[in-house]
User: Which sequence fits this backbone?
């Protein structure tokens, strides 16, 4: 049999939501209104660490137009704490506050102005506690810790005989790198409408994981899953900031208190006090032979998870998973620690622990290459994990040929020529000062996919059109379009005939989450299964219709054919139901036992990430200008190539933030740059003049048609590639991000003094 | 006047680009806002005997595009184009920028070398304030609570003088601004004006650096000329840089040195006698 050609898969079809989004018709949670809805305002703690002595909401409650004030006293007849791994987050602060901005109370009122005015009237008396600021303070702390201790989680693994290996190698390198706290900046800050009625809660919310929110709310309010409905309209960007459960419990409790639906829409300033990325500090010790063979690596990493665990457990683990790099190293020991401090809780952010780990690993790779006099590119290639071998003992082997991937980027970028050109310009230019150019490289593989559990339903209607039901949240990544493509392909109907209904727990079947680059791979498999189920039913119906065997039937473009005769799918459906109506229902299950056999191992897949950068450094000011950036993305099979590029470029652009600009600055627990004027995110003018994604379609993913996830890979290599380019240009190594002009200038001065 | 009647509970509202941000974040609160833009005639950019009069409700965009300003104050028009982003320039006013007295201001630095003045109107009297005497500290001015600025008066540079302005930084607002203008006669620096801003609470002229350069031969003023070096060294000292979110004081002092050199060389270049204009 000849390979069937894809009709929509692999094509850059128009997004299903393009018209709605371009015309402004698309509904986001913030556009919605529920009859009788109250407007909510938080009462944030001004202090980063304090015991709550007294909360007096009497004056606020007495204010005309105020429906309710929620304080810890109202958290009765319910569970009071939530969290994905550790249930340590109270719905509103209970005994003490652990970060500046933590909600101590919330007001529901007839309008926002009233809620804001009433929030000012809530009196809270605090007893200040010493503030735990940053990783070093958390480790060496004698005062009252943030929780029972400042240790949130610890994790590690080891293979080989690390100590002996270090004794036997030629050279040992030890370097420490730090990564700042950064804020996601989803253009739509968190927003939620909750409607509590006895025995039922409905939520409209900007959440990435509707079913995890449903389960959390059901547990908190002691309801069954079927009594909680979570609807996620279009989400205006997530990047992990809307993973798991955020403001939903508070809004639901406030609605219960107010006896009416309540709406809370955060500002950017409030979102910055809701969730952020983990700051990190990582020390890597590497033992190598003089020929550049890595023998041993010993990594110790710390992440700052802020006032509550949020996703601190998994981030601690991913940091450790990702620190040794994509290299074949016989002796490895890794330890990681998650620490509490008095700052905004840290959660998921595009590639959890990834940019932090890869920043340290790939910066040190260049330090070593330089010391050994090796080309940093060839030094990496020499140590890469070969295809089919384990990068982490006991985990899924690497599916792809990493060397080929590295070389493809090096070729596209013109690695050698660029490196030589920059070097010759440096030697021919003025001896001191001036502007210098350099190139840098970085690569990584990250364990992605979260857990392989998703379901989907498809309905083929009596007119031959179809509706597909998925749990994935559409947050700009284009999942609805990709799922429509897969469904259309499997059902053999045109893409335009598929409608996708998504992320409403009362309407669509269960999915774990939208994150970790997983939807196209895992929800994609579920949709593929549901679509194939329908196709098989159609083939059986057509076989009955033609009095033939199912495998003699061809199905394409909405019709079945047999020996030159055709029948429309719509006719087959109507025939089955003996009338004018009816429809077929298909289902797709994705579990670790999926019949493809590809989901048994952890991780679901390894996401490949490679970056090459060329920079210009003004050595008088320390300013770094990113001139060129090349990134590689391996979607296995690009269901929609345009969207893959969009994901990769978006991720790389976001990384320009933590590489050159972004850093949440705290002093004594107070956030010093709590808004977008003082906290600068990348603008289009910060993009490099040459900004390319190299798409590799290696076909080896576990998803539909060999697809695997993308979306996170683009973010992890930018910082080390740029810092390595700065080093190539100037010889100065910067070990803290972002690479602000001042940091680079100081590094240049240190290097001159040395 | 309204401002006097409301006695401290009201604020002038021009473009609101500063005021509304500060009010939203709870830093400022007023019972009433008085809309400057509704006062007729205040948006004009006109000529007077000394130069150009920019009304208090003229936006950055208006100044940047105004034919008279472009002709007589080309450097101001150029710098106004580099302020903030299009949205802020389209509503934010030049006067509002100065009156807010935020330390990181481009025009507050540049207007020092234009030796601009402000018209201030109180309930019963009006006065002229040299631009260097408006701002007294971060977010503080010498305006009385019931006084408002009605116009910014900017004389063009004297004949033969040309200027340049440099700004530097990664934030929305500049980390440093340096303005320099030079007049050359007989191959020598006949006059020079230098100002620095953003690195300290209030922008200032740098008279010691100016003195070092006055009378120097222009063709000797390459990057490593002793007079230029000395002027830059003094600038680093006299800038009185302070640490803030934009950086530490020693770094800013260093930037003052680097950018004074660059700015002076550009100003000389524009003069047609110092190099590659
Ligand atoms: C994102 C962003 C980026 C920016 N970048 C830059 C930059 O690169 N360079 C730069 O120089 N500036 C920058 N700014 C500042 C910008 O120029 C000012 O926000 C703007 O010019 C202020 O004008 P306005 O009319 O909006 O003032 P308003 O916000 O309306 O008023 C500001 C203050 O001045 C008072 N005021 C206004 N008019 C008068 C008057 N006639 N008399 C007395 N008091 C008055 C008001 O009461 C208020 O206290 C930036 C601002 C933002 C928000």
Assistant:
């Amino acid at each position: 049999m000849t390979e069937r050609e894809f009709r929509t898969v692999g094509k850059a079809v128009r997004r299903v939501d393009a018209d709605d989004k371009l015309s402004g018709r698309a509904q986001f949670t913030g556009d919605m209104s529920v009859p009788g809805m109250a407007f909510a305002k938080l009462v944030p703690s001004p202090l980063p660490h304090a015991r709550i002595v007294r909360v007096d909401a009497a004056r606020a409650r007495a204010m005309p137009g105020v429906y309710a004030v929620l304080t810890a006293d109202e958290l009765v007849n319910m569970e009071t704490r939530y969290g994905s791994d550790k249930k340590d987050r109270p719905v509103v602060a209970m005994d003490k506050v652990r970060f500046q901005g933590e909600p101590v109370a919330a007001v529901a009122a007839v309008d926002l102005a009233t809620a804001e005015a009433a929030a000012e009237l809530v009196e809270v008396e605090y007893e200040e506690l010493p503030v735990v600021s940053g990783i070093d303070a958390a480790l060496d702390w004698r005062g009252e810790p943030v929780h029972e201790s400042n240790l949130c989680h610890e994790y590690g693994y080891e293979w080989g005989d690390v100590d002996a290996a270090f004794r036997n190698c030629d050279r040992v390198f030890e370097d420490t790198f730090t990564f700042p706290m950064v804020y996601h900046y989803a253009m739509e800050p968190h927003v939620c409408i909750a409607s509590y009625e006895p025995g039922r809660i409905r939520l409209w919310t900007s959440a990435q994981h509707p079913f995890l929110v449903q389960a959390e709310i059901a547990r908190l309010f002691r309801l069954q899953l079927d009594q909680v409905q979570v609807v996620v309209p279009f989400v205006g960007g997530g990047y992990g900031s809307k993973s798991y459960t955020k403001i939903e419990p508070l809004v639901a409790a406030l609605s219960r208190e107010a006896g009416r639906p309540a709406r809370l829409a955060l500002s950017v300033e409030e979102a910055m006090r809701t969730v952020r990325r983990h700051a990190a500090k990582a020390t890597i010790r590497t033992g190598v032979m003089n020929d550049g063979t890595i023998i041993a690596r010993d990594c110790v990493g710390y992440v700052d998870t802020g006032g509550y665990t949020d996703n601190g457990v998994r981030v601690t683990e991913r940091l450790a998973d990702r620190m040794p790099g994509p290299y074949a190293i016989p002796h490895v020991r890794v330890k990681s620690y998650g620490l509490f401090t008095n700052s905004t809780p840290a959660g998921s952010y595009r590639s959890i622990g990834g940019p932090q780990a890869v920043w340290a690993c790939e910066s040190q790779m260049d330090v070593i290459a330089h010391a050994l006099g090796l080309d940093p590119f060839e030094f990496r290639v020499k140590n890469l994990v070969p295809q089919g071998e384990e990068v982490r003992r006991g985990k899924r082997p690497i599916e792809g040929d990493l060397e080929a991937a590295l070389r493809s980027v090096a070729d596209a970028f013109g690695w050698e020529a660029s490196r030589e050109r920059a070097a010759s310009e440096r030697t021919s230019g003025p001896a001191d000062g001036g502007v210098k150019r350099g190139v840098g490289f970085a690569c990584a593989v990250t364990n992605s996919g979260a857990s392989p559990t998703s379901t989907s339903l498809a309905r083929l209607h009596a007119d031959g059109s179809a509706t597909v039901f998925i749990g994935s949240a559409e947050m700009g990544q284009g999942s609805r379009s990709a799922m429509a493509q897969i469904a259309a392909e499997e059902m053999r109907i045109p893409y335009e005939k598929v409608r996708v209904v998504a992320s409403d727990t009362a309407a669509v079947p269960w999915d774990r989450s939208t994150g970790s680059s997983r939807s196209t791979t895992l929800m994609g498999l579920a949709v593929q299964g549901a679509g194939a189920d329908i196709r098989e039913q159609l083939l059986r119906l057509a076989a009955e219709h033609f009095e033939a065997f199912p495998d003699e039937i061809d199905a394409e473009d909405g019709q079945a054919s047999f020996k030159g005769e055709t029948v429309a799918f719509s006719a087959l459906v109507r025939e089955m139901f003996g009338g004018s109506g009816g429809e077929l229902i298909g289902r797709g299950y994705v579990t670790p036992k999926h019949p493809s056999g590809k989901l048994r191992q952890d991780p679901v897949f390894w996401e490949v990430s490679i970056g090459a950068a060329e920079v210009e450094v003004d050595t008088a000011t320390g300013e770094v200008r990113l001139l060129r950036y090349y990134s590689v993305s391996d979607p296995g099979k690009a269901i929609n190539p345009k969207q893959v590029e969009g994901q990769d470029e978006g991720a790389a652009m976001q990384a320009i933030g933590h590489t050159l600009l972004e850093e949440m600055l705290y002093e004594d627990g107070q956030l010093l740059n709590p808004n977008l004027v003082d906290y600068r995110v990348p603008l289009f003018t910060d993009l490099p003049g040459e900004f390319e994604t190299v798409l590799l379609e290696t076909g080896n993913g576990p998803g539909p048609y060999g697809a695997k996830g993308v979306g996170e890979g683009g973010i992890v290599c930018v910082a080390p590639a740029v810092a390595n380019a700065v080093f190539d240009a100037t010889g100065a190594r910067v070990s803290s991000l972002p690479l602000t002009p001042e940091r680079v200038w100081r590094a240049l001065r240190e290097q001159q003094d040395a | 006047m309204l401002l006097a009647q409301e006695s401290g509970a009201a604020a002038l509202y021009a473009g609101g680009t500063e005021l509304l941000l500060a009010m939203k974040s709870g830093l400022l609160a007023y019972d009433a806002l008085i809309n400057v833009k509704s006062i007729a005639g205040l948006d004009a950019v006109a000529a007077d005997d000394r130069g150009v009069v920019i009304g208090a409700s003229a936006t950055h965009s208006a100044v940047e595009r105004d034919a008279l300003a472009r002709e007589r104050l080309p450097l101001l028009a150029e710098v106004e184009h580099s302020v903030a982003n299009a949205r802020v320039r389209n509503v934010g006013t030049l006067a509002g920028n100065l009156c807010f007295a935020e330390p990181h201001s481009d025009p507050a630095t540049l207007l020092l070398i234009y030796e601009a003045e402000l018209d201030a109107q109180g309930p019963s009297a009006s006065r002229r304030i040299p631009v260097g005497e408006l701002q007294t500290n971060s977010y503080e001015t010498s305006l009385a609570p019931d006084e408002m600025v009605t116009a910014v008066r900017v004389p063009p540079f004297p004949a033969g003088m040309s200027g340049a302005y440099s700004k530097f930084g990664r934030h929305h607002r500049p980390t440093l601004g340096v303005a320099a203008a030079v007049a050359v006669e007989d191959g020598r620096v006949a006059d020079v004006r230098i100002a620095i801003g953003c690195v300290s609470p209030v922008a200032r002229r740098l008279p010691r650096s100016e003195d070092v350069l006055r009378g120097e031969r222009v063709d000797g003023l390459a990057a490593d000329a002793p007079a230029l070096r000395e002027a830059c060294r003094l600038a680093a000292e006299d800038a009185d840089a302070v640490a803030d979110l934009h950086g530490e004081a020693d770094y800013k002092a260093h930037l003052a040195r680097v950018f004074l050199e660059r700015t002076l060389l550009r100003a000389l270049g524009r003069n047609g006698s110092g190099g590659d204009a």
Remarks:
- The first strand of chain B starts at residue 10 and ends at 13.
